[in-house]
Write a structure and sequence with these properties.
The chain is an alpha+beta fold. The chain has eight helices and 15 strands. Strand 1 and strand 2 form a beta hairpin.
Length: 272
C-alpha cells in the first residue's frame, strides 16, 4: 500500500489494461464522430455553450456517459466526478474517479488533434492514478503513485533546465490570464523566461512530460483538467501545484514544471 493506493485497487495490471482500453475506446468513438462529420464548430446544433461560454458537444456527453457507466459497474463503491454530469460521492476509503471526457473541446470541434480524454483516481482529493488518451494524435500516457509515469510505454523524461532565464514555458489561452486578472503575471513570464509557447489543455503537459518545455502555466483550471497531469508530472520527478504553491488540483490554477524552476515560477507568479 502506498499512501492509500496500490495497483490492486484497480485490479492489478489486468485491471490497468482494461481501464486503458476503455478510455481509449471512448475517445476513439469521439474521434470517429468528428471524422464522420457529425460534429463541426460551424454547426450550432452540434455544439452547445454552457453558462461559462465553454463549448460542449454530443461527443463530450457520450464519452462521459460511457465511461461513467463502465466505472460504476466495475468499481461500484468508488465515487465519481465528471465535468458534464457532476459528482457522485466518495467511497469509504476516500477514492473518487475524476473525468474530463474531452479536454480541449474547442480544439476538438475545430479539428485540432490535441484534445484528450482525462481520467484520474483521487484519494481524499489527491490524484494517485491517471490516464491521458489522445486518440487523434495516437498518444497514451498513464501513471500511478509509486508506479512511475509512462508515455506510449516509455518512461517519461523531464528537462533539466534549472535557471528561469533559460526556461521555455507553455501556457493556455491568453484569455485565461485576462479573465483571472493575471495580465501582469503574463508580462513577467515574457520578460524573465527564455521562451513562451501556447500549448493549450493537456497538450502543454504532454510537452512538459517530453522535455520540450520546462513548465506549464494554467491560470484557470478545474480538477478534471489536471488530475492525470498531477500524477504524471510528480511521478516523473517534477512538481504540480497551484500558483500559490499549494499541492492541490482544486486550487483553481495550476503550475507544473520539471521541479527545478518551480520555486522561481511560484515567486514570479505571486509578485504583486
Amino acid at each position: 500500500m502506498n499512501d492509500g493506493f496500490d495497483l490492486d485497487r484497480i485490479g492489478g495490471f489486468k485491471g490497468l489494461a482494461t481501464l486503458v482500453d476503455a478510455v481509449w475506446a471512448a475517445g476513439d468513438e469521439a474521434r470517429r464522430k468528428f471524422e464522420d462529420g457529425q460534429i463541426r464548430w460551424s454547426d450550432r446544433k452540434a455544439v452547445d455553450l454552457k453558462p461559462d461560454r465553454t463549448p460542449v458537444t454530443e461527443a463530450d456527453r457520450a464519452v462521459e456517459a460511457r465511461l461513467r457507466a463502465f466505472l460504476l459497474s466495475r468499481y461500484p463503491t468508488m465515487g465519481f466526478l465528471g465535468e458534464e454530469s457532476g459528482a457522485g460521492g466518495l467511497d469509504d476509503a476516500g477514492f473518487r474517479w475524476v473525468l474530463d471526457p474531452i479536454d480541449g473541446t474547442r480544439a476538438f470541434v475545430r479539428g485540432i488533434g490535441t484534445w484528450s480524454v482525462l481520467l484520474a483516481l483521487t484519494w481524499h482529493g489527491d490524484p494517485v492514478f491517471g490516464i491521458a488518451a489522445m486518440p487523434a494524435e495516437g498518444d497514451l500516457f498513464w501513471g500511478g503513485r509509486g508506479l512511475g509515469a509512462w508515455d506510449n510505454g516509455r518512461p517519461v523524461s523531464l528537462s533539466r533546465i534549472a535557471a528561469l532565464e533559460d526556461a521555455t514555458v507553455a501556457h493556455g489561452t491568453l484569455q485565461q490570464f485576462t479573465a483571472t486578472g493575471r495580465v501582469e503575471a503574463l508580462r513577467r513570464l515574457g520578460e524573465r523566461t527564455a521562451s513562451q509557447r501556447g500549448f493549450c489543455d493537456f497538450d502543454g503537459y504532454r510537452r512538459l512530460l517530453r522535455g520540450q518545455v520546462d513548465a506549464m502555466v494554467d491560470p484557470d483550471v478545474k480538477a478534471w483538467d489536471i488530475g492525470p497531469a498531477a500524477v504524471l508530472v510528480r511521478e516523473a520527478g517534477g512538481a504540480l501545484t497551484s500558483f500559490e504553491g499549494d499541492s492541490t488540483v482544486f486550487g483553481g490554477s495550476a503550475l507544473a514544471s520539471n521541479g527545478l524552476v518551480h520555486d522561481a515560477l511560484v515567486g514570479l507568479l505571486g509578485e504583486v
